[in-house]
Design a protein that fits this description.
Order of helices and strands: HHHHHHHHHHHHH
Number of domains: 1
Radius of gyration: 18 Å
Number of helices: 13
Shape: globular
Helix content: 55-70%
Structural class: mainly alpha
Number of strands: 0
Strand content: under 5%
Length: 216
């Protein structure tokens, strides 16, 4: 089995590098540095152990063996963390869960559209971060591939939601009596743009190469 793993290492490394470059996110701003310092639980993230062979296969309902599941999961898990962040962002704003997938639209809303948005939800729908990986144009996965990965992360790494919930709550304080203005939404969207620090850390631990190799 070690020989098979070595033979597929170049494919795995290629997909990992590709996924790290997907949906590149801006550098942290000052507000993000504050929320990161208050919310990121590095001690808990450091305790995450790598995924087992069985865990890799379970995400695919036993339809894929480990050698096929591993490189796919290296992309899927990172995108699933981003999906969890979207859920927590909407939850912090008391909005419904993310909309069903549609085709990717890279067109930014105009100033006139933003100014004329009749409700906070309508404004957020215009400002909500658009990710190619969460659209019908995702070239790796269907929307229905995500729930098993999200369920796995919620069970295995619940601290992910804790971190995102904390970050967004710091930007929109819970004592705000439910009042949210457009500037607050702008700040929360900016905070979302920095989720890569968490998704990369989680992926680094779950796919730690030495740990994976030792458990084969």
């Amino acid at each position: 089995m070690r020989l098979l793993f070595a033979g597929n290492s170049m494919l795995i490394l290629f997909i990992i590098c590709l996924s790290l470059g997907t949906n590149a996110l801006p550098a942290p701003n000052k507000l993000h540095k504050i929320t990161k310092g208050l919310c990121d639980k590095e001690d808990e993230l450091a305790k995450i152990s790598c995924m087992s062979v069985r865990e890799h296969e379970q995400i695919w309902g036993g339809m894929l063996k480990y050698q096929s599941a591993y490189p796919l999961n290296s992309v899927l898990i990172k995108q699933a963390v981003e999906h969890i962040a979207r859920e927590e962002l909407r939850k912090a704003l008391n909005l419904p869960p993310p909309h069903p997938w549609g085709h990717y639209n890279s067109t930014e809303p105009s100033d006139a559209e933003l100014a004329s948005a009749p409700t906070i939800e309508a404004y957020f729908d215009l400002k909500e971060p658009r990710l190619l990986s969460h659209s019908l144009d995702n070239t790796y996965f269907f929307e229905h591939n995500f729930p098993p990965a999200i369920e796995f992360l919620d069970r295995r790494v619940p601290v992910i939601r804790t971190i995102f919930n904390c970050r967004f709550s710091k930007v929109r304080p819970l004592d705000s009596a439910g009042v949210t203005d457009k500037k607050t939404i702008d700040r929360m969207v900016d905070e979302f743009s920095n989720i890569g620090t968490v998704s990369n850390r989680v992926k680094e631990r779950l796919f730690d190469f030495q740990c994976v190799f030792n458990n084969l």
